[in-house]
Amino acid sequence: MDFFFYPSSVAVFGSFKKGAIAYEILRNIVEGGFGGKIIPVNPKGGTVEVAGRTFEIRGRLDEPVDSAIIAIPAKFVPTLIDEIGPLIKGAVVISAGFSEVGNEELERELVEKARRHGVRIIGPNCAGIFGVHGRFFGSFEVRVRPGGLALISQSGAFGGAALAMGNDEGIGFSAFVSYGNASDLNESDFLEYFADDENTRAIALYIEGVKDGRRFLKALRYASARKPVIILKAGKSASGAKAAASHTGSLAGSYEIYRAAFKQAGAIEVEEMEELFDAAKAFEMHTRAGKRVAVITNSGGPGVLATDKLERLGLEIAELGDETVDELRSFLPSQCSVRNPIDLIADADYERYRKTIEVVCRDQNVDSLLVICVPPIFLPSEEIAKAVIEADCDKPIVVNFMAGELVSGGVKLLENHGIKNFPTPERAARALHWLSLR
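The line above is the sequence of acetate--CoA ligase (ADP-forming); the predicted structure tokens follow.
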């Protein structure tokens, strides 16, 4: 499916009036820096100006391209696919008005025409795709920074919101696909594809339901064996399942069956969007972590909250070795607690944090570290961030700098060095929990 996510040429079909979906997709492709050939197509012809470039709008597609993005009325889509089938490898059908509104026959016709020409279909009723490392933004959703997360979403609106949230959370993406009604390509195809994509480090999947459970389980096993797969399942309740069925025409089915399938395949299920991104952030930094955690904090309360959450999640508060305790006592003020959680007290500076991280990291009873910073107003958070960055430690470190504007400088410095911040102790603890599941 490289012709979708790493295309060298693309045709966009629809109206190119400002504000129209095809225009917005064309604008996203151009502004996103796509280096391949771009062909806008509309029977009326004319020209369209986008981001300082002027394109001739062709009346019809008259040369081969890797993929087509189609945003025209649903009733015309099958005929168009029949016409351009010999010239394209894949089509992203943005248009709605198919099986999700009971128009199964039109969707069947679309798929039949595509198969006749060997064309693969994403959609219909979808929000498009991104191939971020190919600088291809074939969607009307907000563009994102390059990174390692591939986002697969059955819902276009959820996908768009998730991309925007990902930007706010500092997440980097390798790809995005909204697959809508899954008339041809579905979640299983994308799981298998991204499992082998060299730019993807983790896969996030939002699903409401699947049509072929056996195929899905096989694809999920395949992907989970290679990369972390984070799943957010909607339609768990009876009412939610009914809403999911009316949304994309898929069978939501019994949630208990899905939950068992996720566990059997080795996927990581999360409960809400916030958790989806926290898991994604964790796996962007680390591949896995053991269960024995050391908590380092300059504030007792957050340290206790982290400890409670870690234990509730089945992780262990590491028992520090005697040598570690003695070494910590040799340089920490007497008011500091040197048993896990390690409380460096409020005035902890760069040196105190860095040395403590390094000493604790060497302890064979410790698999990972959770470092908490609630800086007093007289101590810049950047100083503690620098200590985390420069500490000599080869074990997974998860950080919780809190709160808000007080730590914004430190959080930015951490992010510039590839370290993601978790804004509460509980969220940081959950990140270590997900890492321990791999």
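Note on the example: The CA atoms of residues 96 and 125 lie 4 Å apart. The domain at 1-123 is CATH 3.40.50.720 (Rossmann fold).
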